[in-house]
Amino acid sequence: MHLTDGLIPLWQAAIYWILTIALLALYMYKLSKTEETEKVIVKTAILAAVTIAASSISIPSPFGVPIHLFIIPLVAILLGPLSGIVVALLCFLVQFFLLGMGGITSLGANVVTMGIVMSFSTYYFYKFIAELDERLGIFSATFIGVIMATITQVAILMFAGVATLEFLTATLVPFYLFVGVIEGIINVFIILSLFKMKPELATAEAI
Fold it and tell me: What are residue 147's phi and psi, to 5 degrees?
C-alpha cells in the first residue's frame, strides 16, 4: 500500500503533509497533557520497533503478491489513534531509508492512508463493537481499518489521476479484503493474550 514518489502531484502531496503535521501537533499537545508521558513514549517506541520489523516481513499469499501486515490497527487499539499515526510515520521513514519502500513527497499521503484513516477507523469501531464482544470488536475493527485505508488510497490515486476506479477495485480491494481478514485473526490472538498477561493494557489511557 506504500505510494512512491512521483505518483501524486506535489500540490496534492502538500495537502496530505499538512494534514499529517496537524495531527502530529495534536499528538504532541495531548502527550504533554497526560500524566503518564514517559510510559506512553516507551510503549510507543516498543510498538514502533515491532511494527517496523513485522511489517517488513513478506508472507506468501494466494494472490501471488506477498502480504505485509500493517500492525497499525493493533497499535491504535492498544495506545490510541494518534499514537497509531506516530508509529506509522516512524515506520514509513525507516522503511524508506533502509528498504526503499514508499517515498518522501508521498509520505504524507501514506500517513493519511495507513496512519490517520486506519488508526481512527480501527480505534472507534473497536470502542463501539468491543462493548458487545471483545473478540468481534478486535477482528471487525482491524478489518474495517484495513478496508477504510484501502478506500482512502483508491480515492487518493483517483484524485491524482494515475488509475481508474475499475482497475483499483479489481486489484487493490480483493487483496486487502484478504489481508484484513488475516490481520484481524492475528490481532484477536495477540491483543487478547496481551490483555490476559497485562490487564492494565485494556484500561490504559489512549492518545
Answer: -70, -40
